Amino acid sequence: MPELPEIEALAQFLREHATGAVVGRIDVAALSAVKTFEPPITALSGRDVTGAGRFGKFLGLECGGLWLLTHLSRGGWLRWIDEPSPAPPKPGKGPLALRVHFFTPAGATPAFDLTEAGTKKRLAVYVVDDPQLVPGIARLGPDALALTEAEFGAILHGTSQRIKSAIVDQTLLAGIGNAYSDEILHTAKVSPFANTKTLPDAKTGELYAAMRAVLTDAVRRSVGQDAARLKGEKRSGMRVHARTGEPCPVCGDTVREVSYVDRSFQYCPTCQTGGRILADRRMSRLLK
């Protein structure tokens, strides 16, 4: 799933490549992806692109008073096309959900596709005149990179739950997902199962510093990359996430995994849990 660094990079990519262009035809290949109906998505056609932005893990394109907003969910992505096919795509065929065509001041006619891999189709598209009209945006907590250390500590200590759950809760903290939470916790040497309420102030400060370092480094590496290369850039920077069975680059211990029905996370026992192996819910069920 694209998280804060990738969405920030995509927003910057759109600012550089789409701002100043005029929205042309919009092809909807997956009607279920469009979650708003008034104004219609066709209302974007003919409007000037005036900017792009990020709202947590939502990506927005500003088009002359209207916003085209999307949440890419787990399998979604944006693909820029310099020379798209003039023929409209066939609805329901392949991963394409939406294609937006542009006319640039230089006379080019590029487009971008919103695509979604996998069978669970959760990519969502909204057309609104105010981003706060999108329920998911209205519920967002403060942005992870806009917090002071004191604000961060107040958020964590104001709830009582596992730290892994807290920092991916978008109503508490916007922008962090499963991958970067693994990296942040590993950098701070905090167990994913540590409780927010009992986390010492000193460790909370270390966690805040790790969050800032991991996210700002990822943004730095991602912004300026071609949209097609962002996924690879994200994977290359991961030390524990999606690296189950590999040696931890800090201590050499084996990276472990805890699995749930539709997700998993990774951690290093030596760095984060004092050597203790956390219960893997999937294996626990098999052993009963």
UniProtKB/TrEMBL annotation:
Residues 239-273 form the FPG-type domain. Residues 2-118 form the Formamidopyrimidine-DNA glycosylase catalytic domain. It comes from the Bacteria. This is Fpg/Nei family DNA glycosylase. Belongs to the FPG family. SMART domains: Fapy_DNA_glyco, H2TH. InterPro entries: DNA_glyclase_Znf_dom_DNA_BS, FPG_cat, FPG_N, H2TH_FPG, Ribosomal_uS13-like_H2TH, Znf_DNA_glyclase/AP_lyase, Znf_FPG/IleRS. It comes from Nocardia jiangsuensis. Its cofactor is Zn(2+). PROSITE patterns: FPG_CAT, ZF_FPG_1, ZF_FPG_2. Keywords: DNA damage, DNA repair, DNA-binding, Glycosidase, Hydrolase, Lyase, Metal-binding, Multifunctional enzyme, Zinc, Zinc-finger. The lineage of its organism: Bacteria, Bacillati, Actinomycetota, Actinomycetes, Mycobacteriales. It catalyses: Hydrolysis of DNA containing ring-opened 7-methylguanine residues, releasing 2,6-diamino-4-hydroxy-5-(N-methyl)formamidopyrimidine; 2'-deoxyribonucleotide-(2'-deoxyribose 5'-phosphate)-2'-deoxyribonucleotide-DNA = a 3'-end 2'-deoxyribonucleotide-(2,3-dehydro-2,3-deoxyribose 5'-phosphate)-DNA + a 5'-end 5'-phospho-2'-deoxyribonucleoside-DNA + H(+).
